Each structure stands twice: as structure tokens, then as C-alpha cells.
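Notebook entry, structure prediction.
Reason for the run: the old model in the group folder had no record of what sequence produced it. Starting over properly, with the input documented here first.
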Amino acid sequence: MQTLGNYEQKLILLPHLATLGIGIEAGVQTIDTYPYYVIGMLHLISSAVLGAGGIYHAVLGPKQLDEKGFGYDWEDGNKMTTILGIHLVLLGVGASLLVIKATVLGGIYDPLIEQVRLIQPNLDPVRIFGYLFGFSPNGWTITGMASVDNLEDVVGGHVWVSLLCTVGGLFHIISKPTGWAKQILIWSGEAYLSYSLGALAIAGFSVAVFISTNETVYPSVFYSPIGSDSVRTALATVHAGLGFLALLGHLWHAYRARAATRKVFYGTFFDFMAKNVTPITPA
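New structure, fully documented this time:
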């Protein structure tokens, strides 16, 4: 056993598990580290499998997958919306797993009482969606969703996220792109990359705001009090920096995707190297 309830230990990953109530046996002081070991090993094995798959497809795999198998045409809108739908359903499943953990499987850590408890989610749509427009129970605030100050609203929000993602995902799986979507959106691999980077940028900035202002989702006992020069500041800065890099990537790849529609192609880094680097031949 050891104590992990002290932010002075400068941890950023294990506190996330602690807030989920994993390993906590009494309050916030006594920790069973074995669940952390299991979770770490699962991530290590998964990363090895993903890394091996990446190396295979980059070095040994075919340059283009057979469209009759796992391959597809980037301009096939029907296929792209199906893939989008699958991702949305998976996001919905992820949100629902948190809800199940909070409501049934042991609960999550509540900093207001410094205990792990089961949560009864608040499903009031006016209150939950009001956060999106900056309306919190204490009045309007510029921090929006990051102003949430109770776990009932946090878990209730995840219920709505799970429902909307699942329904939206199923809709995109069974439907085809509408006329306006075909006209406005760019249907290419680089365009999809830019869309994804834009979403990551929003996520990075949103998390940075949460870390900087919210002590319900990011309890002070794990991440230090708000305003202190500690791990909370570093964690928020990293997320904001990654969000900014993702935003730059979004703008760059969006520009390249739009240029490609005008038949202007910039190629890749490897194309540039092949054109501008003279190979060294032995004397």
C-alpha cells in the first residue's frame, strides 16, 4: 500500500485512475496499486500490438489495400459516413462505460466528501445543455462546461453524450451523405485528416480550461489547488500546447485539401526529399 492522494508527488496519469475510484480502499489515502499494474500492462501490450501493426503497414504491407477487403476509396461518401458512424458509436460506448462505473460498478471519487460513491446522474436536458451556452447553476460564466461543480451533472452529461453519439452513429451508418454535405465538404484523405485535427484542437483547448478552472473533475487533492505553480499548471499547458499544434495541423492540411480541389498538389515530405536531395555515390 502507498498514498497517492498528495499532488506533491507530481503524478498526472495515476490520479485519473484514482478519480475513477480504482484502487482506493479508504477515502483518498489508502491505495491498492495492483489495479494500476494490470491497467499498465494492458496498455503496454496494446501499444506493442498497435506498434507492430504500424511497422508492418509502413514497411511490409501493400501500398494500397484491396477495396474488396479492408480498402476503400477516399471519395466514396457512403463509406466515409459509415466509418464516421462506427467511430461515433464507439465514442458512445466509451461514455457509457464511465456512466456504468459511476452508477453501478463502485462509483467514482467525489472531492466534496473525499470519498468514492455511487452517482445518481442528473438527466435534466435544460441544465445539462445549458452548460454548453455558459449557464451554470450559479449563473452565466465564460468557462461553459468547465463550470460544472457536481458529479451528478458530470455523469448526466455523459449519459447524454453516449445517447447522442450512439444515435448519431447509427444514423450515419444507415444513411448517405446529403446534398449540401456533398457540395460543401471535401472528400479526400487529407480533408479527413484536417477535420480530425480540428476536433483534437477543440478537445485540447477544452481540457486545458477544465484543468485550469475545475476542481470537481480535477480534484485539488490530486492535481493541486487552482492557481498554484504545480502539476495542474504543467498539465494544462501541455494540453493547450498540443491543442495549438493540432490547430496548426488542421489549418495546414485544410489548405492542402482545398488546393488539391484546384489541381494544385504539394506532395509529401518524401517527395520533396526525392526531388531536392542528391544521392551520394561511392567514388
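Summary: Confidence is low (pLDDT under 50) at residues 1-5.
The old model has been moved to the deprecated folder.
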